[in-house]
Specification:
33% strand; metal-binding; iron; EC 3.5.1.88; peptide deformylase activity; hydrolase
């Protein structure tokens, strides 16, 4: 099992849009293996490549016994019905804030062999698909908070030991 070191809020890679995967080789297979291994510990639902310092469009997920990954994911469907759901992030540890998310989401991408793959889900899986795809676009869940919550979140994050400082 290859657990990769996490990047934390403040690290510029987390605010950068990722490049699409164009080479499907053993390096991609190793990255996917690391992402899947690194999302397995209890309390984790998803992990995007930039969270381990890789600027490629790949994420893994492990929600309610459903584990997998998507290469070059794009959200293709979101329900109009939304809800506020407590959200946290491995790159923003210890902080949880209610975040508005679609209750249903569908993502399309490819697997490590460049074959089409589709993942869809409700509630927590939908939240995970949206959250991880956001990471690949350089968006953190903190960016989706109301102005008041974002102000509180930013203040709290800057006071944490893990906050990336130059």
């Amino acid at each position: 099992m290859a657990m990769r070191e996490l990047r934390y809020f403040g690290d510029p890679i987390l605010k950068s849009a990722c490049d699409p995967v164009t080479v499907f080789d053993e390096k991609l297979e190793a990255l996917v293996r690391d992402l899947v291994d690194s999302v397995k510990p209890a309390g984790r639902a998803g992990l995007a490549a930039p969270q381990i310092g890789v600027g490629l469009r790949v994420f893994s997920y492990d929600v309610a016994g459903l584990t997998g990954y998507v290469v070059n994911p794009e959200i293709v469907e979101l329900s109009e019905e939304t809800h506020e759901i407590d959200e946290g992030c491995l790159s923003v540890p210890e902080l949880w804030f209610p975040t508005r998310r679609a209750k249903h989401a569908k993502v399309r991408g490819v697997d490590i062999h460049n074959e089409p793959i589709e993942v869809e889900g409700e509630d927590v899986l939908a939240q995970c698909l949206q959250h991880e795809t956001d990471h690949l676009d350089g968006v953190l869940y903190l960016d989706r908070l109301t102005a008041e919550r974002k102000k509180s979140a930013m203040r709290a994050a800057r006071d944490k030991d893990w906050f990336w400082k130059r």
